[in-house]
Write a structure and sequence with these properties.
It comes from Nocardia speluncae. GO terms for molecular function: DNA-binding transcription factor activity. InterPro entries: HTH_MarR-typ, MarR/SlyA-like, WH-like_DNA-bd_sf, WH_DNA-bd_sf. The chain has two domains: 90 residues, Arc Repressor Mutant, subunit A (Orthogonal Bundle); 30 residues. A hairpin with a 2-residue loop joins strand 1 and strand 2. A two-stranded antiparallel sheet has the order 1-2. Helix 3 crosses helix 4. The protein is globular. It has six helices and two strands; from the N terminus they run ααααββαα. With 170 residues, it is mostly helical.
């Protein structure tokens, strides 16, 4: 039975959206647990791992980050981001590269060592994930990808709105 004025289609839609939101919260929670284990096993601070995730995501999306962009994403001071970037370069996790389109800009990328370390740790997770999806039709996977793209876009928009509401210097 659906509440008054709500159709079965509307109720089904709300239920599906609620299920997706619940799944994303569960995915976020277990991702954070795995991230903590990775960081601890490689003597990384939580901010180091967050920075690596931002750098890897931006690279995968074809939009590598500058240190300034990373600073904005992480909400750190210029001095803190400089210290973090220098520490991550020294540890071999990331490297700087001059932007081939604008030689004045310096981009951050995963270094070969960082990729190897991440691959060793997360490779088995990739295998488990692929195995978990083997029975799903490709069309379902593409639909799930579209859903996740929209959710990520909504979350990024919300993050921007929250940052815009922050008091200056906050």
């Amino acid at each position: 039975m659906t509440p008054a004025g709500e159709t079965a289609d509307t109720a089904a839609r709300i239920s599906a959206e609620t299920d997706i939101a619940t799944d994303i919260r569960a995915l976020t929670a277990i991702s954070e647990q795995i991230a903590h284990l990775f960081a601890r096993s490689h003597a990384l601070r939580s901010t180091d791992f967050r920075a690596l995730m931002h750098i890897a995501t931006a690279d995968a999306e074809g939009h590598p980050l500058t240190a300034g962009q990373l600073r904005e994403l992480m909400g750190l001071s210029p001095a803190a981001i400089t210290y973090l970037v220098e520490r991550m370069i020294a540890s071999g996790h990331i490297e700087r590269e001059t932007d081939p389109r604008d030689r004045r800009r310096v981009l951050l990328h995963y270094a070969d060592h960082g990729m190897a370390v991440a691959g060793e740790f997360f490779g088995p997770l990739g295998g488990r994930t692929r195995a978990a999806m083997t029975a799903l039709p490709t069309d379902d996977l593409r639909a799930a990808h579209r859903v996740l793209q929209e959710v990520v876009a909504a979350m990024r928009d919300h993050h921007t709105a929250l940052n815009d509401q922050r008091p200056a210097g906050g």
